[in-house]
Design goal:
The protein is mainly alpha-helical. The chain has two helices and no strands.
Amino acid sequence: AYRASTSLDFPAIMGVSLLIALIFIFINLIVDVLYFVVDPRLRAT
């Protein structure tokens, strides 16, 4: 990823950025689901 950014390889930079964004969204989804499972107060609403 570093070599792609220094040589301005835009498709590789966009691919790495997309991968990081997808991982971030997936982790946020998992945390939201786990928070709903762990906190019983959320089930009443």
